[in-house]
Specification:
The chain is an all-beta fold. Helices cover 0% and strands 52% of the residues. The radius of gyration is 17 Å and the shape is globular.
């Protein structure tokens, strides 16, 4: 039985985009809305900082100790934590007002992969049901060349790689399936898409990978996190005290603590812990998220 600790009652509306930097032992994550917020937690000092952002920012990747790559509704951006400068790197779907970005991550060579989806916020930040499969999966090379990898997606999530970088895992939350692809790291090419896993509680949201090649998948609406082994079988289920589990990352000095973001629950089973950041100490070691190597001109 694992212990699920409430680390920070941050009351996120839609906590997401969590990543960890071992350089300074810091967690970063987002509260997604029309004007997202960045949360920063120093695990060594427990210092907490919140940054107001100018648009819908949905995923992050560490560029340096003071710089993050942000994926937003209008493209990729470089954010400086010292100066608060929000600099556009490349525009993507800026002419498509009905879409926004969603999950994203850097691969082992520093390319950035991310998905887009129907924008589910109205002008006042209220929820809109996602009914259209108008999203895409993108790859941005380190020279900022943009490629469309997949189309006709509902809610793209779970962008992770196997420990040896030979496999890529991805899900469209709307259809409930997690897929696996062969991955050519050198050329950044996906092939041989196949079904990997499906689970009957909630919907597959964000994920992270451990050194055993097992995926830890957050279940939105399912009140749990599921560890799938490399064959796609359920290995372990961690019960959570809130319903909407959104994303997770391994962090801490030994990479054996799973940090988990959550979202509010406006429908049923509401809890004062909704939107909190949780920490779970485990006997498994995670893979640290890859750093961005995008060339900024």
């Amino acid at each position: 039985m694992v212990n699920v600790e409430v680390l920070y009652k941050c009351k996120n509306v839609l906590g997401e985009g969590i990543t960890f930097s071992s350089n300074n032992n810091v967690l970063y994550w987002l509260d997604i809305s029309n004007l997202s917020k960045l949360f920063k937690l120093n695990l060594s000092t427990d210092k907490k900082e919140i940054y107001d952002l100018p648009e819908i920012v949905t995923s992050t990747s560490v560029k340096s100790d003071s710089e993050l790559i942000f994926c937003s509704n209008n493209g990729l951006n470089l954010y400086n934590l010292d100066t608060f400068e929000f600099k556009r790197i490349t525009n993507i779907e800026e002419s498509l007002p009905l879409t926004r970005s969603n999950d994203g991550a850097s691969d082992a060579l520093g390319r950035f992969w991310f998905g887009t989806m129907q924008n589910n916020f109205d002008k006042n930040g209220n929820d809109i049901s996602v009914k259209e499969n108008i999203g895409k999966l993108y790859k941005v090379d380190t020279d900022n060349k943009v490629s469309i990898v997949e189309e006709d997606l509902g809610i793209p999530n779970t962008i992770v790689w196997s420990p040896d970088n030979s496999k890529f895992y991805f899900t469209d939350t709307l259809n409930g399936n997690i897929f696996r692809y062969d991955f050519d790291l050198e050329n950044g090419i996906l092939s041989n898409k196949s079904h990997f896993a499906k689970f009957n509680r909630g919907y597959p949201d964000g994920s992270t990978m451990d050194t055993d090649g097992c995926i830890w998948n957050c279940r939105y609406g399912g009140s749990c996190i599921v560890r799938f082994d490399p064959t796609g079988q359920v290995d372990q289920i961690i019960e959570m005290p809130v319903q909407n589990i959104t994303n997770c990352v391994f962090g801490g000095k030994d990479l054996k603590t799973l940090y988990v973001t959550t979202a509010s629950n406006k429908v049923s089973n509401q809890s004062d812990l909704d939107g909190s950041l949780f920490a779970i100490n485990l006997n498994y070691q995670g893979l640290e998220d890859n750093k961005s190597k995008l060339v900024i001109s």
